[in-house]
Design brief:
187 residues; alpha/beta; Rossmann fold; 7-stranded mixed beta sheet; two-stranded antiparallel sheet; 5 helices; 11 strands; 20% strand
Length: 187
């Protein structure tokens, strides 16, 4: 299965890269720029919304995080120190400086305030109709989400990342929804 997942990661990263390269500047700018109503109901003033800073051709939650901040939500970003260490969510405000971390991720400094998110906008390599997610392979989000039982997990992806099926391991955590540039997907 590890080989299958590795092959699937390569395939869906390539699809994502090709798709994003094919988009016009306007299409890239408009994608994920508006909060859809089903997501908006989760963005209550005072709640904490975790997102991420994109790497490569990942779908960007930046405009969604800015909109959540404008609605009075606290914002958090992941902080990763190694492949095996647990990922933490640290408070961040749009415009705050970021530091380069493990895997080339841009993240808040280690001394930023730790928080427990109510909503987690999750990056992914691929997803299926059961809302199972294929991530980068280190298990950071699955481990973090397993500790955030009350948090709403929403995958952020390009539509071309929708896979027919992803073989799930016992520790894999399904998303509550997936937002693409074209649709809001739930069970």
């Amino acid at each position: 299965m590890d080989t299958d997942k590795a092959t699937m990661r390569r395939t869906y990263r390539q699809r994502r890269d090709e798709y994003v390269r094919s988009l016009s500047d306007q299409d890239r700018h408009v994608a994920f720029s508006q909060v859809p109503t089903p997501l908006g109901v989760h963005l209550r003033a005072g709640c904490t919304v975790a997102g991420y800073i994109v790497k490569d051709s990942e779908a960007s939650p930046q405009a969604l995080l800015e909109a959540a901040h404008e609605r009075g939500c606290n914002i958090a970003l992941p902080h990763v120190t190694s492949r095996l260490a647990p990922m933490r969510f640290l408070r961040w405000r749009p415009g705050d400086p970021l530091v380069s971390g493990t895997f080339g991720l841009m993240q808040p400094a280690a001394d930023a305030e730790p928080v427990s998110p109510d909503v987690v906008l999750v990056p992914l390599v691929a997803f299926d109709s059961r809302l199972m997610r294929l991530g980068q392979g280190a298990g950071h989000y699955d481990r973090a989400l397993s500790l955030l039982a009350d948090a709403t997990a929403i995958g952020i992806a390009w539509s071309v990342q929708h896979a027919p099926a992803i073989e799930a391991d016992p520790w894999d955590i399904p998303m509550d929804a997936v937002l693409t540039e074209k649709s809001w997907i739930t069970l």
